[in-house]
Every structure is written in structure tokens, then in C-alpha cells.
Predict the structure.
Amino acid sequence: MLSPANPPVSSPSSHWEWQYLDLMRRIWEAGDQRIDRTGVGTRSVFGAQIRFDLAGGAMPLVTTKRVYWKTATREFLWFLTGDTNIRALCAQGVEIWTDWPLDRYRKETGEDISRADFSARIVADEAFAAEWGDLGPVYGKQWVDWPVYQPAGEGLFRRAPHGINQVAEVVESLRGNPGSRRHIVEGWNVAELGQMALPPCHKTYQFHVADGRLSCLLYQRSCDVALGLPFNLWGAALFTRMLAQQCDLEPGELVWMGGDTHLYLNHADLVEAQLAREPQGTPTLAILRRPDSVFGYRIEDFEVRDYAPQAPISAPVAV
């Protein structure tokens, strides 16, 4: 375990990333050790917060290791399509979600296929992807097509052909009623949790307008601090910037709140390495084009500047 004798010095006025590193240190040194769903085990705290000012193009991009922001952006844009099959992600070389369908395939077929071969087959074979690549009604499905049901007679109901597009509704409410307290995008659909490969971790986004600035509060019920949180911070900030552009607002503050906030026990090497580093630099994001809607952004619309991260640190994903 990292010795607490000589921790990096942090202060509220220093680089924002000390909030992230201090949280990591607190979990690793004082967190409750728990047996979790994956069987790997975690150290965990309950209730955490990070705040970040998005003014001037600033982004909460972790610098003490490389964060692959283009991968995180491709995933976020995929959420906005409402797609739930990994085929489109695999075709872009994004493997964030591959482990869950791969694990199911191996268990149900007994074939010890490699991840690379599985992804290649998902991309090449549409029928195979339809059978093995779907994740159930995860994030994007709930965001843009939350199911609604219509009376079908004699106390019966049938699912309507189109659900609620929460993201589109938030855009309209931000434009038409910015003072509302209902600018919310919710992923936690209790009725469909059992059909999801993984229930939503970053589950609730609430937006707030004050003095022409759009802020976002993200509540995350479960957070893998080492691997997941850097992507989650990026995604929430990206979402806020996209909505701000679409609604003629300036980006405000990102407030991230975690419920079960944890580090996996098999991430010791990553934690030790990252806590030995110090944050550096202030990366920014430029959005190069304003599409007609929040659903029209493409990966080439985003440019990160002044990002010079330290070396990547790898660690296994707990499935």
C-alpha cells in the first residue's frame, strides 16, 4: 500500500486533478474492503464529490495518465444514437463494451474465442452481431427511447412504437424554460434493469442554468475510480458543452457525485503508479462545428488542445 508518510501536497487552489487523486488515495488507504458482484473485491467509500469549472474551454481530462478521449467521445456519441449493439463500436475500434457479450458467448457456447477474434466476427457478420452483440436496453436506449405503454383494452397495455427522447426534451426545456428544475436525463429504468448487460452506473444527469451558464450535476450510483471515472468526467463535460452550444449558453460547472465509489483490489499497481505522479497542464476542448441538433455531432467536430498526459497505466476490467 502507498505510504501515507509523504503524500503529494494538495490544496483547494491547485490543479483540479488533486480532487481525483485525493479521492483515489482516501479510498485506497481508508476505504471499506468489500466483496463485490464481480468477485474481484474492492475498497470503497460511499458519497464523494468532484467539482470542475468548464469556463474557457477547460475539460476535466486526467493528466496523470493518458485518457483516450476520442474513445470516450465515440462511446458517448453512440449513446446518443440509442443503439444497444456493440457492432458500431467495434467497427470503430472501441472495445469498452465488448467484455460483457464476450463473457456471455464464452459461457453459453464453451468456445474460448479471443477478444480480438470475437470483435472481428461481430463486425464482419451481421447475424452473429445480432445474436451475440446486443447489450439490452442500456444507456442510450433509455436516453432517447424510454419506453411508454398505451391502453390495449380490458386492462391490457402495449408498448408504443416510439418512446420518450429525454435528451431532445431537455434541449427544448433548456431553450424554452431555462429556470426549470426538471432538466434531467435518467438511465435507471427499474422495469428493464434485468434486461441490461450492465445497469447504468452514471445514471442521472441534471442541468441547471444561471447567469447564462449551463451546469451539470452527474450522480453515479457505482464508480470504478481507476478506469471508469476519467471517462465519466469527460462524458459529462462533453454532454454539457454540446447542450450549451445547442442552447446558446456558456458552459458552467460540472458537479460529479458518486455513491459507491471504489477501487478494485487488482488495480494496486495502477493506484500506486498514479498516486506517485503530479497533475500538469490545462487541456481544453474546441467544438469545431455546430450541427443542426445535439444528435448531429461527429468525432471530427472535437479537438483537444494542450493535452500532454503522462504515460498510460493499464489495469484489468472487472466484468
